[in-house]
Amino acid sequence: MVKDLQQKILKLKAERDICILAHSYMSEDICEVADFTGDSYALALKAKTAKQSTVIMCGVRFMAETVKMLAPEKRVYLANPQAGCPMAEQMDREVIAEVKKMYPDYAVVAYVNTTAQLKTIADVCVTSSSAVKICRAMPEKNILFIPDINLGTYVKEQVPEKNFKLLSGGCPTHAKMEKSDVLKAKAAHPNALFLVHPECRPEVVKLADYVGSTSGIMDFAINSEAKEFIIGTENAIVEHLQYKCPEKRFYPLSKDLLCHNMKITTLPDVLNCILGEGGEEIIIDEQERQQSVKCIERMIELGG
Ligand code: 13P
Ligand code: SF4
To answer: What pTM was estimated for this model as a whole?
Structure first.
């Protein structure tokens, strides 16, 4: 059944000049039909290089919007229109415009997990894998980092030469993890390395052997000599790693590390989207796109 669906998708996407992009949190059956799977930074870069005229994003809404902003000539679809990122909806443009007035000499650095509208007032965008590099490289000394306070705290520690103002947004899934979850997992698996996403709280991140994006965590585990790992990000990564490295052992930091929004997209959604019976085409007002794409282009320029 899964194989039949996959065959259909592969045939149709070739016939219809479609590129399927899948975030690393997608299930294995979706990753297998994707042209490319990666973290949010790598997916943004693919918007520029994908040769196909249509892109289907299997991930959450801001990822599809990023592709549309960078490649307005393409038709871009979100495979499941219900897949939003709660963090991206936490702050709106008007609120940040007011905060900006309080800190006029601060550059606004927006995590890519934000709406297209909010990006219109950001000076530069970052992802979890590029945030430290970009904050170091940008010439501005004062940074207003939105919306993730946990990622912001991590970046602030890595870039002590700059001044940071942080606001209290964040990922409800990663922020649920506590120091006690780490201590419990380490006690159960004393030989395991602990790999964590910087969206987790500082007291959780401090206990990690490696801090990185979803792709960063996967690359680290695949290339490490170690044999056991506790994974401090969405549990899809545990599944992918166990599949890729059957000789190693991977343990979830907690069974609650689940992002409902990332789980919502299914293989049938991908097929329905190709057939025009599901999915949503991403449309962004051209004036808004021109304003919001600037901070993403600056991210790519500074992120290398
Ligand atoms: P990445 O930058 O690792 O892709 O993270 C995106 C995300 O939403 C993690 O929760
Ligand atoms: Fe958003 Fe968190 Fe889900 Fe990532 S894991 S998509 S940040 S809610």
So the answer is: 0.96
